Amino acid sequence: MDIKANLEAVKKSFVNPSCQLIAVSKTKPIEDLKAAYAAGIRDFGENKVQEIQAKQPEMPTDTRWHMIGHLQSNKVKYIAPYVHLIHGVDSFKLLKEINKQGKKINRVIPVLLQMHIAEEESKFGFDQTELEEMLNSEEFAQLTHVQIKGLMGMATFTENSDQIRKEFRGLKTLFEELKKRDLPPFVHLEDLSMGMSGDYQIAQEEGSTMVRIGSAIFGARNYSQGRTEKKYSH
Ligand SMILES: *Cc1c(COP(=O)(O)O)cnc(C)c1O
């Protein structure tokens, strides 16, 4: 697996060259992360707290760790001191916990709100009603140690590119709509995290600012050693 060559090929195929690339290194050994680092990558995406915890001390200190998967509230405290961006904030409960942990260590933690845009019921994320409820609540306005930097979404896993495009477009529309709203100062909507190995070009055409790419860089993942990837079984 030539990680450097894969990275070059991926970047060359970007529709929007200024879109940020997050290299999704979940399940991959530290040597693979180091190879990507040597090729210039600083942003790495992981979806398990335990795995970030294990890899973080092994990588140079300027590595930026992105938590891209579903995050359980009781695990926030482990990554709160160093996580660069939490992409998968999918409930108000989780956001409040991140705020609480940030407060404890006096750090404002950058997050994205994950919206449910796919047809599949199994994918995590806010629906529009839940989002509105949160945005309109008094408790929300009082958060002090989170910074909401944008939205994240995962499209349906399908060959139907029109379907994928429609879902990304819907997320972009919501993103633009929210930007115009009068929201608390800790909401700075600038990042739209959408697109993975199979759909990043469509995502970029639809306005993605950040793509999360794993298998196109590091090769297919092998989950045969007892690993499970709950609610994300492509
Ligand atoms: C695994 C994962 C990715 C990367 O998937 P690839 O298809 O390997 O590029 C992106 N986003 C999330 C949330 C993931 O869990």
From TrEMBL:
Keyword Ligase (UniProt): no
Ranges of residues in domain Alanine racemase N-terminal: 3-221
CDD domains in the record: PLPDE_III_YBL036c_like
PROSITE patterns on file: UPF0001
Domain of life of the native organism: Bacteria
Pfam family, one: Ala_racemase_N
Residues with the N6-(pyridoxal phosphate)lysine modification: K26
Keywords: Pyridoxal phosphate
InterPro entries in the record: Ala_racemase_N, PLP-binding_barrel, PyrdxlP_homeostasis
Its biological purpose: Pyridoxal 5'-phosphate (PLP)-binding protein, which is involved in PLP homeostasis.
PANTHER family (alphabetical): PROLINE SYNTHETASE CO-TRANSCRIBED BACTERIAL HOMOLOG PROTEIN, PYRIDOXAL PHOSPHATE HOMEOSTASIS PROTEIN
NCBIfam families, A to Z: YggS family pyridoxal phosphate-dependent enzyme (TIGR00044)
Similarity remark: Belongs to the pyridoxal phosphate-binding protein YggS/PROSC family.
Name listed for the protein in its UniProt record: Pyridoxal phosphate homeostasis protein
Biological source species: Algoriphagus taiwanensis
